Amino acid sequence: MQITSVAQAIALDYDTIIDVRAPAEYAEDHIPGAINLPVLDDAERARVGTIYKQVSPFDARKIGAALVAANAARHLQGPLADKPGGWRPLVYCWRGGQRSGSFATILRQVGWRTDLVEGGYKAWRGAVVAALSEPPAARFVVLDGNTGSAKTDILKAAKAQGAQVIDLEGLANHRGSIFGAMPGGQPAQKGFESRLAVALARLDPARPVLIEAESSKVGEIFLPKGIWQAICAAPRIRLVAPLDARAAYLARAYADIAADREGLAALIEKLRPFQSGETIARWQGWAGEGALAPLARELMALHYDPRYEKHRARHGAAEIDLAAPSLASEALPGLAAQLIAAAEGLTR
């Protein structure tokens, strides 16, 4: 079968999608919903490739075939042992060639109706690149606001109320600042782009889509050209919250960082080129005491707010300012409801 678009790929009707590439290839990116049953693991793939280049293609194919057969046997006796006769898998590798073809042949010999993805993973990757190369058809509304304005949590509350939301920080697994690392680390760039393409494909273009104001990078992940153009061109709603409310919110939201005193100190050191030695020393003192609220207050006042204003100047003023006198947990659903109403007004 062929993959012609992201929307078509996420609607595939198979019992199981099997990625037979090596684990490292799968970890970088894969077709949504696919499981990994490698016919060559990372070391085996490297070994066969070396033999192909340094000895001969024939020897590489012979050794590769033996390894594929052995690994296929393990899969048949393990993850596939309980599959019934009517089970229908879809199999792919890098380009829909030898690895997936060999495994599919074995599955067909068992009696399972097995299809191959023409062009393999490269076909999926091509669909993702095409989907992200141009601004999406969806009508974006950008939620802007200085650091600590609870933008991400307000967007989550809006989604819970039925709004369409693209959570870039969630997709990138990063909170978007030098203090923004999340457990598990970030996905590979290709993996992030696949997640984003799938999220875009599931949108209703007739309804507004809320998205957080970001720079062109979220952690180490770059935003694709099309999505960045859409963010720059979209109307903006700016959350306006007092500095003390934002500091209190950050102290609550970043409690995990405050618990790691050494890690927090190391992050503050990265700001030394931008701040005076006296300021860094004061921040390090608060970090050592676990005093996150005063630390957050000064970080915003002296570091992040001035940079936000410079960044915002390049995009022009927001169409609507949304006052947020409190960012306590109980206030966020009400702010989300106001955000939804304002976004609908901007896109009528």
Notes on the protein architecture:
By secondary structure, this protein is an alpha/beta fold. The chain folds into two domains: 6-130, Oxidized Rhodanese, domain 1 (3-Layer(aba) Sandwich); 136-346, 3-Layer(aba) Sandwich (Rossmann fold). It contains 16 helices and eleven strands. The strands form three sheets. Strands 6-7-5-10-11 form a five-stranded parallel sheet, sandwiched between helices. Helix 6 crosses helix 9 (189-201), helix 11 crosses helix 15 (292-313) and helix 14 crosses helix 15. The chain is elongated. The relative contact order is 0.12. The model has no long low-confidence stretch (mean pLDDT 93).
Q: State the helix count.
A: 16
Instruction: Describe the oligomeric state of these chains in a short phrase.
Output: single chain
CATH topology of the largest domain, anyone?
Answer: Rossmann fold
Whole-angstrom Rg: 25 Å
Number of beta strands: 11
Which strands sit side by side, in order, in the main sheet?
6-7-5-10-11
End-to-end separation: 40 Å
The largest pleated sheet is described as:
5 strands, parallel
Q: Which regions have little confidence, pLDDT < 50, spanning 5+ residues?
A: none
Beta-strand content bin: 5-15%
| Elements, N to C (H/E) | HEHEHHEHEHEHEHHEEEHEHHHHHEH
Mean pLDDT, all residues:
93
Task: Give the CATH architecture of the largest domain.
Answer: 3-Layer(aba) Sandwich
Structural class label: alpha/beta
Characterize the overall form. elongated
Q: Count the domains.
A: 2
The CATH class label of the largest domain is Alpha Beta
Fraction of helical residues: 40-55%
